[in-house]
Amino acid sequence: MKHTVSGIEPSWRMPAEWAAHERCLMAWPTRKDLWGPYFEEAKAEYAATANAIARFEAVLMIVAPGQADEARAMCGEAVEIVVLSIDDSWIRDSGPQIVLDAEGNRAAVDFGFNSWGNKFLPYDQDATISERVLDVLGIERFSSDMILEGGAITVDGEGTLITTEQCLLHPNRNPSMSREQIEAELRHRLGVTKIIWLPYGHFDDAHTDGHVDGVCTYVRPGVVIAQTCTDPDMPDFERMAANLKVLRESTDAAGRPFEIIELPQFPITVLPDGTETMVAYANFYIANGGVIVPIGGHELDAAALATLARAFPDREVVGVPGNIVAYGGGGVHCITQQIPAAGARR
Questions:
Q1: Distances from the Cα of 34 to the Cαs of 127, 185, 276, 279, in angstroms?
Q2: pLDDT computed for residue 90 by the predictor
Q3: In this structure, is residue 345 part of a structural domain?
Q4: How many domains does one find in the chain?
């Protein structure tokens, strides 16, 4: 049964990613023209990610009609399959954003989705996948007309949201909304009280127009991982410095200055067809008891994993292959979406 209401009470708030999860959502690769010669390798990386997460929490893989047998064969019994029509496989962006009230009751905000500014067509199935998967999960749905992808925000569960101007203020998202109107909708729907605007995402993030989850991610309240750059010849050098400056000069909703853990690694990998990709280590997924990190078989992997292990001393940090997902335009965080457990601490 569908549960849709137009408003949301002030007591609802989006929990941080480290709050207890009921499960993780993923969606099986289906857009062949996106992956080109690497379509089969993309599926293998999705399966590897799903199985890594399944060690820590349940995984529900959304699969287009006709692909269930393939997904079951590649993912194994640890991953649950549900067949729903989809156009693409970036469920972080097309999926629901779960909110909790003070008692831990769940609902979901279903923001609008326009395929990152109408970049990939068609997307009519992905525009409704949030509503349809919420029907499967039996979670109440709040609808918002604002275009917002999950990868465009990171929250601490205590009232602070971090995003980028490059993405949320891009005219291909919400051209009729001012910055103040966007802020008001985020506050209203996600229960945040302070919004921090970083100027930029990655320079080469053409698909998403600069999602925050590749450059800055919450670790715990008051602590963030920030992508930094030490090479002045790289196009991201000044951009990451500008983000770092904002973080250093900001405080969160509780008035705390940020503890910033820098992640300076930029691993460039050349694929067999000559395409250069960069795995964004900051694009990790926080699971129950684990942190799943994209890696590229690069010499910089070890240093990045060590940094994340220090950042998450109470969780197991697990690297999964990410070169092909990076080729497609994202990372582990982009292809996952947490479903917080009912009763979870916000």
A1: 18, 32, 15, 17
A2: 98
A3: no
A4: 1
